[in-house]
Amino acid sequence: MYEFKDFYRNTVQLSFDDHPFSQAPKHVWVICRYQNQWLLTNHQDRGYEFPGGKVEPFENAEEAALREVKEETGAAVKKLTYIGQYKVLGREKVIIKNIYFAEIDKIEKQETYYETKGPVLLNSLPGDIAKNRKYSFIMKDSVLQISLEKLKKDGMIE
Ligand code: GTP
């Protein structure tokens, strides 16, 4: 298990075990890959981030992952793989998120992208995300870097 502080100095625990913190987490985060590019969304308040959000009462975490990717980017997922889970010990509450890797099939224009400005495709992720104001705070802690290393190690990305 990894432990570190996030952008707001909250403690984060990260693990690539099988659902170490909760069998039914209430949040999901989806690292998306489309034709050798990263697919992110541009959140209206937070900025660039991989899509994700809350699991609604009528769905499970995988369904939430597919729905959030579609809503925030217009993308259809070809293959969704569970990677791990992280827990944020916030001031007011504790949140637990599943991390997924998604291979994207196609991206279709949407009528609305909900609270985001829609899809953002990037050839590479910049090295200065931690201090880049365009990027969301959820991209600014070690969850991103350690997850990318895990994906590389498992041969899911180059
Ligand atoms: P509402 O219930 O709609 O009010 O949402 P909320 O504003 O309380 O946010 P949410 O429940 O999604 O998250 C609560 C807090 O957890 C946020 O204010 C963040 O500090 C923290 N948080 C949420 N997602 C992440 C994440 O991916 N990474 C990190 N480091 N913190 C997160």
Plain-language structure description:
Its EC number is 3.6.1.55. It is an enzyme of class 3 (hydrolase). This protein has helices at residues 61-73, 142-153, and strands at residues 2-5, 11-15, 27-34, 37-43, 47-49, 52-54, 75-89, 94-107, 116-122. The radius of gyration is 15 Å and the shape is globular. The protein has 158 residues and is an alpha+beta fold. Strands 1, 2, 3, 4, 5, 6, 7, 8 and 9 form a nine-stranded mixed sheet that branches. The protein contains two helices and nine strands, in the order ββββββαβββα. It has a single domain (2-153), classed as Nucleoside Triphosphate Pyrophosphohydrolase. The mean pLDDT is 98. Helices cover 16% and strands 42% of the residues. Strand 3 and strand 4 (37-43) form a beta hairpin. Guanosine-5'-triphosphate is lined by residues 6, 8, 10, 12, 29, 88, 90, 93, 95, 97, 138, 141.
Bound molecules: guanosine-5'-triphosphate
Write the element-wise H/E pattern from the N-terminal end onward: EEEEEEHEEEH
CATH top-level class: Alpha Beta
Coarse morphology: globular
Q: What about the largest sheet?
A: 9 strands, mixed
CATH topology description: Nucleoside Triphosphate Pyrophosphohydrolase
Q: Which structural class best describes the helix and strand composition?
A: alpha+beta
Estimate the strand proportion: 35-45%
CATH superfamily: Nucleoside Triphosphate Pyrophosphohydrolase
| Uncertain runs | none
Number of helices: 2
Q: C-alpha Rg, in Å?
A: 15 Å
Distance between the termini: 24 Å
Tell me roughly what share of residues is in helical segments: 10-25%
Tally of separate domains = 1
State the total count of DSSP E strands: 9
Overall pLDDT: 98
Query: From the coordinates shown, what is the CATH architecture?
Result: Alpha-Beta Complex
Keywords: Hydrolase
GO molecular function, one term: 8-oxo-7,8-dihydrodeoxyguanosine triphosphate pyrophosphatase activity
Enzyme class: hydrolase
EC number: 3.6.1.55
